[in-house]
Design brief:
By secondary structure, the protein is of the alpha+beta class. It has 7 helices and 10 strands. It has a 6-stranded antiparallel sheet with strand order 3-4-5-8-7-6. Strands 1-2 form a two-stranded antiparallel sheet. Residues 11-78 form the HTH gntR-type domain.
């Protein structure tokens, strides 16, 4: 059998450099240490800065490096462990100390969200913002969209604002009977506001987990949670669970 075209393709230079850099991170640098600047690193390994940047971006995506505003590129800590999906379905905020409510507003959602919720495109919905912190670093930011029809006991006149408003929406939402909970995960890039909340640079890789909460008759809420891709490793079990593993389990990098 002849050699296929795929077998004949050589390893890209940036990928080889990524392997060399990964070995250097293991042997020469400690967690939190700032790497030399790009010019010095490129000179050390004898590569163009464009090639170096590709290798650094790949290592950042793998969770080995972090680029921080005003600091530079540092060696990343072990990935944190955070459970996203569980066998027991529950409304957001139900015995969930991991997520912290930040505020709540009433605003017109993006068209795709309005379509998923079955609301009119110009119909305002409750938008609850929550954050998730692990090991003293932000790991996720969430926008939870809740139609007014899902929380009829919360009128516009008596709805509090800020964190109290967020807790009120979550409390009223839990009065409903949850019938289904479905999640989907995709890779994305951090927008400006998300990057600021997650202490990342705009365009940094993120994992977007979209969860639909439904009663027997309608979609009652839609969550769009953005996780730092550099801190998370997802595994899918037979039960459909989604977990983030830490330390050695994050593993074979």
């Amino acid at each position: 059998m002849g050699t296929t075209q795929l077998e004949a393709v050589q390893e890209p230079k940036y990928w080889h450099l990524r392997t060399v850099l990964s070995e250097a991170l293991d042997s020469e640098f400690s967690v939190g240490e700032i790497l030399p600047n790009e010019r010095d690193l490129a000179a050390r390994f004898g590569v163009a800065r464009a090639t170096l940047r590709q290798a650094l971006e790949q290592l950042e995506l793998e969770g080995r490096l972090q680029r921080r505003r005003g600091v530079g590129t540092t060696v990343a800590p072990p990935r944190v462990g955070v459970v996203v999906g569980t066998r027991r379905h529950a409304w957001p905020g139900a015995a969930d100390a991991a997520w912290q409510p930040v505020d709540s507003t009433r605003a017109t959602p993006p068209p795709a969200v309005a379509e998923a919720l079955g609301t009119g495109r110009d119909e305002p919905v409750h938008t609850v913002r929550r954050s998730r912190v692990s090991q003293d670093q932000p790991v996720a930011a969430e926008l939870l969209y809740v139609p007014a029809s899902s929380v009829p006991g919360l009128t516009t006149s008596d709805a509090p604002s800020g964190e109290a408003g967020a807790r009120a929406v979550l409390r009223e939402l839990r009065r409903l009977t949850l019938a289904r909970q479905e999640s989907a995960v995709e890779l994305g890039s951090a927008r400006t506001e998300e990057a600021r909340e997650l202490d990342r640079l705009p365009g940094a890789p993120v994992l977007v987990v979209t969860t639909r909460y439904a009663t027997e008759s309608a979609t009652a809420a839609l969550s769009v949670a953005t996780y730092r891709a550099d801190t998370c490793r997802l595994t899918f079990g037979d039960a459909g669970d989604v977990e983030f593993h830490e330390g050695a389990a994050a593993g074979a990098r």
